[in-house]
Amino acid sequence: MSRLNRVSANLNMLFTNVPFLERYKLAAAAGFKLVEVSLPYQYDAKEMRAEADKYNLKHTLINAPPGNWEAGFRGQSALRSTVQQFQESIPIAISYAKILDCPRVHVMAGIPKTDEDIQHAKATFLDNLRFATEKLKENDILCLIEPINAITIPGYYLNNYDQAVEIIKTIDSPNLKIQFDYFHAQQICGQLSASLTKLRGHIGYIQVAQVPARGDCATPGEINYNFIFSELQKYDSELIVGLEYSDATPHFEWVPGMNLEF
C-alpha cells in the first residue's frame, strides 16, 4: 500500500505554454510519474504512449470522446439525440485507453438542451452508462462519472452526488465509480469531509483545484487542502489525485509539503 496519495499531472491544463506532446517531458522533469489527459483525441495515441514511455510516465485517466467541444458539447451520454454517436465513441475510448495502458475512462454526461433530450435524460444516461460500463469492464477499464457544478458548466446533467450514487446503485456494477473533484464538490455541496465519508466505497479517482480561481492547491481560496489531504490519506491512501487546475508554468513545491507524493 502506498504511504501517501500520489499525484497525476493533467496535461491539458498544465504546462500549456508548450505544445501538447512536449508536456510529457516537463511533467517528468517536475518529478511526476503519473499523467492524465482529459481530451486526448486530437492527438495520436501511439505518439502519446511513446512520449510517456520515453519519460517513464503512466497514464491514469482519459475522458471518453465528449462530442464537439468547440460547439459546446460536454459529453453525450445523457443526450437521447446522440445515442448512436455515444455508442460509437466508446470503442474509440477503449482503443486509446489500451494503447495508453490507461486503467480509467471518465464518461461525461453532457448538457441536455432540446425538450426531447431533457425529457429522456435520465433513461438515456442509465442506458448509455450500462453500455459503457460493460464494454469498459470487458477491457479491464474502470468507468467513472463526475458530478460537475452548475457554475463551471451550466446545465450539466450530472450535477450532484446523491444523483450519482442513485445511478451507481441502479446500474449495480463494481466497474462504475465516482470521479470526486474537490473543485466541483465545494461548489455543489461543500461539507467536503462529510461528503467523502458519505460516498465511501463509491469513489474511484480524485481531482483537485482551488476554488474559485481554479489554481493550485497552495493558492488562496475556499479549500484548506492541508486538511483535505490529511483526511484523504486516512480515507484511502491508494486513490490517485489528479491535478486538474489551470497553470501554464506550474510549480509543485507544495506537493510534498501537503503530504502527497509523485
TrEMBL record:
<dbReference type="GO" id="GO:0008903">
    <property type="term" value="F:hydroxypyruvate isomerase activity"/>
</dbReference>
<dbReference type="InterPro" id="IPR026040">
    <property type="entry name" value="HyI-like"/>
</dbReference>
<feature type="active site" description="Proton donor/acceptor">
    <location>
        <position position="146"/>
    </location>
</feature>
<dbReference type="InterPro" id="IPR050417">
    <property type="entry name" value="Sugar_Epim/Isomerase"/>
</dbReference>
<feature type="domain" description="Xylose isomerase-like TIM barrel">
    <location>
        <begin position="25"/>
        <end position="249"/>
    </location>
</feature>
<protein>
    <recommendedName>
        <fullName>Putative hydroxypyruvate isomerase</fullName>
        <ecNumber>5.3.1.22</ecNumber>
    </recommendedName>
</protein>
<comment type="function">
    <text>Catalyzes the reversible isomerization between hydroxypyruvate and 2-hydroxy-3-oxopropanoate (also termed tartronate semialdehyde).</text>
</comment>
<comment type="similarity">
    <text>Belongs to the hyi family.</text>
</comment>
<feature type="active site" description="Proton donor/acceptor">
    <location>
        <position position="244"/>
    </location>
</feature>
<dbReference type="Pfam" id="PF01261">
    <property type="entry name" value="AP_endonuc_2"/>
</dbReference>
<dbReference type="GO" id="GO:0046487">
    <property type="term" value="P:glyoxylate metabolic process"/>
</dbReference>
<dbReference type="InterPro" id="IPR013022">
    <property type="entry name" value="Xyl_isomerase-like_TIM-brl"/>
</dbReference>
<keyword id="KW-0413">Isomerase</keyword>
<dbReference type="InterPro" id="IPR036237">
    <property type="entry name" value="Xyl_isomerase-like_sf"/>
</dbReference>
